[in-house]
Amino acid sequence: MTIETVLAVGGLIGTLAGLTGTVFYGRAARKLHRERLSFTWDELHAGGRELGRQVKEAGFAPEIVLTPSIRGATVAGIVVLEFDNQLPIFMCIQEDIRAVHFAFSPSDHTAVETSKWRIRVPDALRGHTDKRILIVDDFAMSGDSLVKIRECLTQFGFAREAVRAASLVCTTTTKDTNKAPEFCWYETPTSRFYFPWGQAR
Across residues 172-178, what is the average pLDDT? Predict the structure, then answer.
C-alpha cells in the first residue's frame, strides 16, 4: 500500500468521523434547544411542586389561590399540592381582546385590561380581603396581567403585602421592567415557549 493510499484512506476516515460528530452534536444541540423552549408534563409537574416549595420557603402562607386562566389553573392545581391545607382556587375569566369577544359579561366579575387580555376577576374575593392571596399563572410574558390583577385586588381591599404572584415560567423582560412575579421556577429570554398544551400566550 502506497503512502498516497494510506493518506487517502486516513482522510476518508477523518471526514466520516467529522460528519458523524457533526450529526451527533447537531442533534444534541437541537434537543437541548427544544428542552429550553418547552416542558413535558413531567417537567411541568416537577416545576409546579418546586414553585410551591419556593413559596413555602419564603415564609408566605397563602390562604387563597387566584389564577388568570385555565392554563394557570393547571399549574395552580400542582402548586397547592405542596401545602398541607386545602387551598381554595379562584379562576378569572380571560379573554384575548384581539379575538372574538365573549357574548356575555358576567355582573359578578370586575374586568381589567392589558393590550392583549381582558381579565374578569371574581367579585367573590371582595369578601375575603383579610386573607393572603397567591396569584398563580403558567407564563409571565410581559408581567402586565399580574400588575393589573394586583391593582384590582388592592382596589377590592387586599393589603399589598398580602398579595404575591408565582409563575412557572417568566421572561427576562418581566424582570427588566420590574413586573416579574415574586416566585418563578424557570426564566427564559424568549416569549416563544411551549407547554404540553401548546405555545405560551
Answer: 90
